[in-house]
């Protein structure tokens, strides 16, 4: 059996959380079977593997199910510690700080920018844009502290926090095209703007990050789905 054993990933190519896990797998040089999911029509395998949240990503390692992208990345880093670079920092203080900021990005960044897509009025959209900008400004401060003047959050190469924030960049790029909002501009968040360019040039990002057009297409499909659900709910009243 290969070093990785039997490894399967249930995913959605545009999902930031799936991108995060796929980049980690790539960094470790692991081969795996990737099984794309249709979240509009969830598969038996997904429902059975993640009955609590019914979400992707799901990693299945030798029949064991591992859920939640952060937990999965940490699992990958621990199980295949001897393969590829260490994803989490080795120093306990740096590890704790990376986990803190990654949790912050999960909690605040995703909900802020997804809100831009979900907004039904201009005012609501503008609020979500400001919220996204505020989170990015905080992450700019985090970058200044964590990177110590180096290229990435983790130093000279990509680590846990880079994956945690970098996995969202394709969505910010798509929103620029969809709504004309420019995030990560040199004027406001110069450090993150430079980092985002370097991140996009890494092998892991090039291998895994989907094209902006694919992201936009999915965003439009989601919007149409939400609109149809709203109409159905209103007619049922
Ligand atoms: N905290 C989870 C979040 C995963 C998540 O939100 N996945 C979304 C795709 S981006 C999903 O599967 N949504 C399905 C649904 O909400 O029905 C993680 O980090 O893995």
UniProtKB/TrEMBL annotation:
Protein family membership: Belongs to the GST superfamily. Tau family.
SUPFAM superfamilies found in the cross-reference section: GST C-terminal domain-like, Thioredoxin-like
UniProt superkingdom: Eukaryota
InterPro entries (UniProt xref): Glutathione-S-Trfase_C-like (IPR010987), Glutathione-S-Trfase_C_sf (IPR036282), Glutathione_S-Trfase (IPR040079), Glutathione_S-Trfase_N (IPR004045), GST_C_Tau (IPR045074), Omega/Tau-like (IPR045073), Thioredoxin-like_sf (IPR036249)
Cellular location(s): Cytoplasm, Cytosol
The encoding gene: LOC123435347
Protein name: Glutathione S-transferase
Cited PANTHER family: GLUTATHIONE S-TRANSFERASE, GLUTATHIONE S-TRANSFERASE, GST, SUPERFAMILY, GST DOMAIN CONTAINING
GO biological process, one term: glutathione metabolic process
GO molecular function: glutathione transferase activity
Residues annotated as domain GST N-terminal: 5-84
Pfam family, any one: GST_N_3
GO cellular-component term (any): cytoplasm
Keywords attached to this entry: Cytoplasm, Transferase
Entry function: Is involved in the conjugation of reduced glutathione to a wide number of exogenous and endogenous hydrophobic electrophiles.
Catalyzed chemical reaction(s): RX + glutathione = an S-substituted glutathione + a halide anion + H(+)
Chain ranges of the GST C-terminal domain: 91-227
E.C. designation(s): 2.5.1.18
CDD domains: GST_C_Tau, GST_N_Tau
Broadest EC class assigned to this enzyme: transferase
PROSITE patterns the UniProt entry points to: GST_CTER, GST_NTER
